[in-house]
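User: Continuing from earlier, I have the next pair ready.

Assistant: Great, send them over.

User: Here they are, in order.

Assistant: Folding the first of the pair now:
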Amino acid sequence: MGTILVETGSIWRRIFLLDPVTASEEQKAGLVRVLRSRYHKVCAGELYRIDGQPLRAPTEAITLDTGMVLIGMSECLRSSSEAEKALRDIFMMFFAGLGISREICKKIDRSELDLRQQLKMLSLWTRCRQNAPLMPVLNFAAALLCRGEPQLHETRPQTIARMARALMPDAWTIYSKTVSFFGYTVDEPRIPYVLESHRRSPPGQGAPEAEPVHERLLSA
């Protein structure tokens, strides 16, 4: 049995659902359209801005977006395996929508797409779902965006925490859009409360380290 998580006050509560279901082609196509639109906005510097600045590596924003889609589908489909399967289908449709030729797309094995980071986000959400699971996910995502930045070595925990707070509104938007395709609505989190609680967290506890990544999503 899975849950849709909504926030009431400062507490995340569960809405219990029924048996697992699968994502329809229409639902997957709708999510592809959303991801494609957001991809262009990220490239234009309109989403996930940090201190008013666009991301240096917009491809990492796709990892964050698709991670939030995976989380949303896992909640709605009541099955992480079904959500992962649907996300692999969505990626193939997404690639085709970017103008990648059909011949090249045929060479991409969807089962070999690297979803380790998205699955890690889902794992964090699941593990922390009893109490505000969004921030641990965003801490992890911020760590991904920060990696490979030597100048962040001394202030890394503080920088990651600050970035996580900045990512929250746009990340929540893609999560709420995802669940809406499956007929659910979620209350918008009380972002000021969550951010204030996060600021009060002891140093070093708000930023899980990103796992090293040696491969990106497979492409031709």
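And the other member of the pair:
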Amino acid sequence: MAKEDFKIQAWMEQLRRMREMQYAYHKKFFNGLYFFLVLVIGCLLWDSPLSLALAPFLVISAGTQSCFYLHFVDFARLHARHLETRLNKVLGKGTLVGSEIEDTYFYPIDAPKIGGFVPFAPFRFFSFFTLHWVLLWVGLAGFALWRLLPAMGACGRDYLVLVALWGGLNVVYLAWFFFRRQALSFMDKHLHKAVSNG
């Protein structure tokens, strides 16, 4: 087998693995959303002080876990884009266009974002979908707090501070991490270097 054919075969295998990884983490993302949704609704239906106190923390965990899965999807998309670039140099420009279609249809992989919300493109469906789930989660957490706080008396304020601090810490970190794109930028530079070396 010629060296060029071997390279094409290796890149195609890597591309297949990245697309499988994308699919696997999309699936984990949705399974995670539904799992946390069932847990939170179960806590609300149970309607005990403990279950209601747990609900806002489950909501925060659901958001952070969803961003974790999205981070892996972005990794797979970025790697797939570089593999398609390499393959298109050999097979002809426009042979593989999956990454271009994803940038157009979902969200540009290079765009700064907060989780799945792209501030510079708030009306894209992916941003709307993210906002939809954020509002749903905030509504469920708000309902739990509305039911819980009257029963907590004076310690309700301390509990609210704890929830606000934990939620705020998660939101600030995720916004900082996704918006500045350091991990994706580092990987992008590494892959560009690999492409230029061979």
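Worth noting for the second one:
The chain has one domain: 3-197. The longest helix spans residues 3-46.
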